[in-house]
Amino acid sequence: METKGKPYQRAPQILALLATHGQLSAKTLQILLEPQINVRRLNEVLQRHCEQGLICKQYDRLFGNSGVFYYLNQNTQSILLTAQKLKTQPQLISPPFIRHAELIHSQHCTLWTEKLKHFYTDDLVLREQQFYKNDIYDQHFPKWNPHDQVENRPDIFMELKVDRSHDKSIAFEIEQHQKSEKRLVEKLKNYTTKTYISGLVYACSKDAIQHRLRHIYLSKILDRAMRINYYGQNFMVFAPLDQDYQNLIPLWFQFRVGYLNSVNGSVFYVNLQTLKGESLLTNIPLRTAGSFCI
């Protein structure tokens, strides 16, 4: 609940989120702010920051022309004030601009990214716009030309530290809509043959999207993917794109695995935390009962 007597305690959280992810809706901010804040109080805070010139409103055609998103004010004085509140250098504040067609997708990516950061505090979690600018990009995607493969970059990249000299890397894709088979085949081929990532998580909004991805992977990718052939049947993991993000992994963090060898289409669950001590998605005990706590 909101704590009285600290009217500006939300500013660092809101400004940091906008600086990292670009335009965000009030709903997205409400889910991510801690401690929880009610809608009325959040609207008051956002209005005050707008009046102070720290943030601006963007009105969009989404939701019946009633979409409202917030972003950092980019004028020099506002950036200086934002940097002061975030205790950083002004030149380090460079929020991405999210185009209209990607605004909803970006909200999902933001929520997944921040939830992963919350539960894996010692590990590296990056959005696409952060990842390809990072030195770590070439370590995991050495055969990709970043200028030619914009559409094939992962939505989220995660590096799990196993020990001082070893790590596991996971790419996350947020899929809300069906894509052409040609596009999916190209992306899956790139992941399995032109990268060094250890596993791939697809968070799908519909079961039909998941089933199609599994079919394409089994029929057109798996037999030709020599890099991962010894654990190819466990390389790709599926997760539901949960719409209720307040209840997404608050105490439980589950990934639904479309187990590729399953004849009857059974659904299994695997705990990501167990991956740190084992070869990623290899010889992991798949369980048929629900989810379990990390």
Give a brief rundown of this model.
With 294 residues, the chain is an alpha+beta fold. 34% of the residues lie in helices and 19% in strands.
Describe the structure.
- This protein is of the alpha+beta class.
- It is built from 10 helices and 10 strands.
- It has a 5-stranded mixed beta sheet with strand order 4-5-6-7-8.
- The radius of gyration is 20 Å and the shape is globular.
Ends: how far apart? 25 Å
Query: Regions with pLDDT < 50 over 5+ consecutive residues?
Result: 248-294
The number of helical segments is: 10
Main sheet characteristics: 5 strands, mixed
Q: What is the helix fraction of residues, given as a range?
A: 25-40%
The main sheet orders its strands as 4-5-6-7-8
Task: Please write the string of helix (H) and strand (E) elements.
Answer: HEHHEHEHHEHHEEHEHEEE
Based on CA atoms alone, the radius of gyration comes out at 20 Å
Tell me the structural class.
alpha+beta
Which shape, going by the Cα principal axes? globular
What is the arithmetic mean of pLDDT?
A: 79
Beta-strand segment tally: 10
- Strand residue content: 15-25%
How many domain units? 2
Give the topology, please:
Blueprint: H1 11-21, E1 24-25, H2 26-32, H3 39-51, E2 55-60, H4 62-65, E3 67-72, H5 76-86, H6 103-119, E4 124-127, H7 128-131, H8 136-140, E5 156-163, E6 166-175, H9 181-193, E7 199-204, H10 207-221, E8 236-240, E9 255-258, E10 267-270
Parallel strand pairs: 6-7, 7-8
Antiparallel strand pairs: 1-3, 2-3, 4-5, 5-6, 9-10
Helix pairs in contact: 9-10
